[in-house]
Write a structure and sequence with these properties.
The structure is a homodimer of 230-residue chains. Chain A has 230 residues and is mainly α. Chain A contains 10 helices and no strands. The longest helix of chain A is centred in the first third of the chain and has 25 residues.
Chain lengths: 230, 230
């Protein structure tokens, strides 16, 4: 046993790397096959390790590994939404979308797997892991918008747009990653301002907010195509 | 046994009614509780029948009942999309949306249950029951639009909007059915023309299609508020 005990710091790093490798492998397998068809043996073989080693990291077996893999992907995805509350807002949205779409591009099938756990939006009745990601996305967007207490229509609009972004990501993967990421991102930003424009026509709060949003972006949105509604 | 054999016509009707009652009861229970927490006994009690009777209708037990309940709701939902290819197109969309939203309003929790089986859009990798509903919705919309071979961007736009409608329905239920059904329907129609407008700015096919769509609706859309993009 003594020969298996390297220095603590070295050992901890290896443990985290191994755990991360097993999670990535599991996410890929769970993405390609229904959970009931994936065995711990499959994960061990795909990761090039022994079955006991997988059990050492995930003593709860497949269910624990499955949930940990989804949680790991969800956490990483949520980090994409972190953006300082500084500077023009549309470029902030562009940066968040770029990180999000890069995650989608990189994780591909694993991203689809993550999203298969829940319904189309987070509601008070659903509790899946992906709902936490959706809630985080909505909260982040609302935090950045120039509005203090977003009302029903504005919140609904943001939630619907988040869903449309998620749909766009899955369709984009499904369509062989067309159009280009830049095109997709600009398209989504334009859709955001367009649906806000629709809501603004019936909701004074959204109208005031949208005017502020568009004005604040004027100076620094050269990288983004002008929204189609302006 | 002879006393249990009424005339065939009478018996068949009773069988279908009973089956339908059991499906409705099951859908409600599966909507309120995770499938693993619902027993056939619960369904029997809620429907006011004996456990053996539930088994007579669903010999495959809970899984069969669960899938049959979802399929029944999905079939009913798909029927909402049937609309003759006649008359101005926006009013057709209004009628379809009205039927769809009436289904959402009536089925409430059962509607949420139906949608919890899949990811956010139908893709080539997903096979859940709700995906069949989404595919039907997209196909019906594309069939009604003035375009012969819809390209990638137009198809993506329609799929994203269908997802946004689904999200809106779930949020609407979650928010205590606010705003009114009329407001919600007009809002969704306006969003449809707005996102088509965004796509049209980058996609000639969608631009031509949208112009035809807006022109054809001019004569007969008094019941719908003017789309915000026009």
């Amino acid at each position: 046993m003594a020969s298996h005990a390297p220095t603590p710091a070295y050992r901890r790093l290896r443990v985290e790397e191994r755990r991360s490798q097993l999670l990535d492998t599991a996410l890929r397998l769970f993405a390609q096959h229904p959970p009931e068809d994936v065995s711990l043996d499959d994960v061990a073989v795909a990761a090039g390790v022994s079955r006991p080693l997988v059990y050492r990291y995930f003593p709860g077996g497949k269910q624990q590994l499955y949930e940990a893999a989804l949680r790991s992907a969800a956490d990483e995805l949520k980090q994409c939404f972190d953006e300082p509350l500084e500077g023009p807002r549309i470029p902030r949205l562009v940066r968040v979308l770029d990180r999000y779409l890069a995650f989608v591009d990189e994780h591909d099938i694993g991203f689809s797997a993550l999203l298969q756990g829940g319904s189309v939006v987070e509601t008070s009745r659903t509790t899946s892991i992906v709902d936490g990601v959706r809630r985080a996305a909505v909260e982040q967007i609302l935090r950045h918008l120039p509005v203090v207490e977003p009302g029903l229509r504005l919140r609904m609009t943001v939630r619907m747009w988040i869903t449309a972004v998620e749909a766009a990501s899955l369709i984009w993967l499904d369509e062989g990653k067309q159009p280009s990421l830049d095109d997709l991102r600009n398209w989504l930003v334009d859709q955001f301002t367009a649906v806000l424009g629709v809501t603004a026509a019936h909701d004074p709060q959204t109208a005031v907010m949208l005017e502020a949003l568009m004005a604040d972006g004027d100076a620094d949105t050269a990288a983004v195509e002008p929204p189609s509604l302006s």
